[in-house]
């Protein structure tokens, strides 16, 4: 694979992985659970909402790794940096829906889910080589 193709696939994988993470997170947060919040949601909603957040990151990591043909982890690093940047912006602005430890756990589950999705894509038997 030449360098232009690698750069194109890296950019495409980063954009599509990031957009799919945003899409699935928005679906699980705003549509399925209608504004998941530690203070106002029930325990069942918190459990299923947090699980949906984690699964959205797993799916995004899987998609991103399959696009980049399993040998380049730069898109996942960039998406992880985006998640950390979003966390820092929300921390500095004070825009929280619950305790800091709960929001930190959600963002850490996003990062962990991305990398678990990457691992699943690498081990996926039908993935392109």
UniProtKB/TrEMBL annotation:
Which terms are listed as keywords in the entry?
A: Membrane, Transmembrane, Transmembrane helix
Q: Which residues cross the membrane?
A: 7-27, 47-69, 76-95, 107-126
Superkingdom per UniProt: Bacteria
- Protein's recorded name: Uncharacterized protein
């Amino acid at each position: 694979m030449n360098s232009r193709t690698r750069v194109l696939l890296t950019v495409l994988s980063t954009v599509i992985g990031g957009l799919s993470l945003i899409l699935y997170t928005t679906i699980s947060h705003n549509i399925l659970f209608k504004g998941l919040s530690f203070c106002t949601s029930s325990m069942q909603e918190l459990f299923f909402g947090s699980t949906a957040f984690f699964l959205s990151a797993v799916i995004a990591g899987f998609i991103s790794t399959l696009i980049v043909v399993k040998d380049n982890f730069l898109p996942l690093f960039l998406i992880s940096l985006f998640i950390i940047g979003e966390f820092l912006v929300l921390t500095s602005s004070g825009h929280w829906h619950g305790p800091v430890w709960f929001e930190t756990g959600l963002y850490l589950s996003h990062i962990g889910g991305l990398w678990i999705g990457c691992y699943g894509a690498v081990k996926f038997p039908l993935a392109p080589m």
